[in-house]
Specification:
The chain is of the alpha/beta class. Helices cover about 40% and strands about 20% of the residues. The chain contains 11 helices and 12 strands. The structure holds nicotinamide-adenine-dinucleotide (NAD), 3-isopropylmalic acid and manganese (II) ion. Nicotinamide-adenine-dinucleotide (NAD) binds near residues 86, 90 and 290. This is D-malate dehydrogenase (decarboxylating).
């Protein structure tokens, strides 16, 4: 029988709550479709940092490399600088494994009210550049104690980096509604972004069935709220794609429902699946976290592993539970993570407790 070998890093905060919930449901989906998971749990994150001064062991990335995929919760703790937690785990994984596409579908879910009028049929995918751009490692430092203190970080956009993410977006759009919306600040103010436009235009030129639309990120923020159904595939730089994904998630009802796939499209390295949200220290330990983003990320992992039927089952299960009115507090409901997860597990065939 098929076995998928997955590295699990629950990480911090609500990651430790939503990851076990999702693993339980993914196991149920696997059983229904004749395959199984071999999960290897890595207890890496802020506790590891407190004990060892590092988010993961020195050979952490090599160990992850041996798996078919990585299932991540979130990292980040209020008492540790984010520079340590993020550059110590999340960002190195994305970079070492060349996960240059961060794929973030957002759509309105059954029974989940949007805070925005007219969002009922919103269905878009953000293709976020995931390894360069504004998140570059070039020049990133704070100049302390100079006559004038300053902080400088270079934005780095390479032709290769833009071309491959734009090509991915175009291919995705060709199988959807054919519209690629490229989001920049390319009115010459941010000097790197006219180059982004140029390379995106060249990449998409002559592609059958794909239309390119360009919009400035400030106008985009407004248009997403005013016309959330006007989009199909959105392609954006690392920073802009990050910001737009929380905005779009909130329009769908809560960032707690938004999934993300950090893809290495060439498949020479493992890809990583995680929710869009972070460790949510404000609700961690309360049993109130919405597990939908993690479950949906799990479904994206199933698709990536060649298990589309199981993926569809997982999505159908959490959609049915939401449609039944079972919702966590971020969606205006009164159910906790456990109650919501129990209901999803029932839909996936778990026997009720006796
Ligand atoms: P966050 O996404 O953790 O939380 C923002 C708000 O959304 C909070 O009010 C939180 O309670 C709510 N929220 C998030 N996920 C939810 C869920 N599943 N269910 C219900 N409510 C949810 O963002 P933040 O507070 O800015 O960041 C907290 C920490 O997480 C920081 O250390 C940050 O660096 C880190 N972070 C990590 C990742 C990641 O690991 N990929 C992503 C984003 C933020
Ligand atoms: C995300 C997060 C990360 C990002 C942070 C925590 C570095 O916000 O995955 O969306 O900006 O990529
Ligand atoms: Mn983010």
């Amino acid at each position: 029988a098929r076995v998928h070998d997955i590295a699990v890093v629950a990480g911090d905060g609500i990651g430790r709550e939503v990851v076990p919930a999702a693993v339980r449901c993914l196991d149920l989906a696997a059983a229904r479709h004749g395959f199984s998971f071999a999960w290897t749990e890595y207890d890496w994150g802020s506790d590891h940092y407190r004990r060892h001064g590092a988010m993961m062991p020195p050979d952490g990335l090599d160990r992850l490399h041996a798996h078919d995929a990585i299932f991540l919760g979130a990292v980040g703790a209020p008492d540790i600088p984010d520079t340590e937690t993020l550059w110590g785990l999340l960002i190195p994984i994305r970079r070492r494994f060349s996960q240059y596409v961060n794929l973030r579908p957002v759509r309105t879910l059954p029974g989940v009210p949007s805070p925005v009028r007219g969002a009922e049929t919103m269905d878009l995918v953000i293709v976020r550049e995931n390894v360069e751009g504004e998140y570059s490692e070039v020049g990133g430092r704070i100049y302390r104690g100079e006559p004038a203190e300053a902080a400088i970080q270079e934005a780095v956009f390479t032709r290769t980096g833009i071309t491959r993410v734009a090509a991915f977006a175009a291919e995705l759009a060709a199988g959807r509604h054919g519209l690629v919306t490229s989001v920049t600040k390319s009115n010459g103010i941010v000097h790197t972004m006219p180059f982004w436009d140029e390379v995106v235009e060249q990449t998409l030129a002559g592609r059958a069935g794909v239309r390119l639309e360009k919009i400035l990120v400030d106008a985009m923020a407004a248009k997403l709220v005013l016309a959330p159904t006007a989009f199909d595939v959105i392609v954006a730089s690392n920073l802009f794609g990050d910001i737009l994904s929380d905005l779009a998630g909130a329009i769908a009802g809560s960032i707690g429902v938004a999934p993300s796939a950090n893809l290495n499209p060439e498949r020479d390295h493992p890809s990583m699946f995680e929710p869009v949200h972070g460790s949510a220290p404000d609700i961690a330990g309360k049993g109130a976290a919405n597990p939908v983003g993690q479950l949906w990320a799990g479904a994206m992992m199933l698709d990536h592993l060649g298990e589309p039927a199981a993926a569809a089952d997982v999505v159908a299960a959490f959609e049915a539970v939401l449609a039944d009115g079972v919702r966590t507090p971020d969606l205006g409901g009164t159910s906790g993570t456990a109650e919501f997860t129990d209901a999803v597990a029932r839909h996936l065939g778990e026997a009720p407790p006796r």
